[in-house]
Every structure is written in C-alpha cells, then in structure tokens.
Amino acid sequence: MINILLNTSAVIISVSTLIVLYRVAKGPSMPDRVIALDMIGVNLISLVGVVSLILETTAFLEVMLLLGILAFIGTVAFSKFIEKGVVIERKRD
C-alpha cells in the first residue's frame, strides 16, 4: 500500500515539474520565471526524498541538501540580477 502511494506521489511531483517548466518558458515576467525555477528546485528535492523512501536508503540525503543549497543560491543570484543587472559588483576606483 505504501509503495503505491510513494509511486503515485513521484508521478504527481514529476507532472508538477513539467507544468512548472512551462511557466519557466512562457512566464509573463522575469520574477515569475525565477519563482518557477525555485519551485523546480523544491520539486527535485521532494522527488529525491520520495525516491529515497522507495529505495529504502539514506544515501540520497546529501543530494537533497546539496540541491537545497544550489536552489537557494540560484534564486538569490537571479533575484540580484533582476534588481541590479549584475550578480557580482566590481568597484574600480
């Protein structure tokens, strides 16, 4: 019974990721695309968690942590790029 629920949730998360990919491609504005990319990161983390439960292993916990860190850094970098036009500011006197 639990395997059916886990497999169903993996399929639902995958479909959700495909829907969000459409929002990344056709987003009406740049901030909407950044939020969609962040949601893809969250969906990937949850999908890895579900796969970890399906395979009954804890080997993917580091992968989930790494994906979370990369999604956060990507969201911050895109947000800074939208706000200022550059990600890394270099002040030259």
TrEMBL record:
InterPro entries in alphabetical order: MrpF/PhaF-like
Entry's localization field: Cell membrane
Membrane-spanning ranges: 6-22, 34-55, 61-82
UniProt keywords, alphabetically: Antiport, Cell membrane, Ion transport, Membrane, Transmembrane, Transmembrane helix, Transport
CC per GO annotation: plasma membrane
GO molecular function, one term: sodium:proton antiporter activity
Main location as per UniProt: membrane
One Pfam family of this chain: MrpF_PhaF
Membrane topology category: Multi-pass membrane protein
Family matches, as NCBIfam families: PRK12600.1
Family classification: Belongs to the CPA3 antiporters (TC 2.A.63) subunit F family.
Name of the protein this chain belongs to: Na(+)/H(+) antiporter subunit F1
Lineage: Bacteria, Bacillati, Bacillota, Bacilli, Bacillales
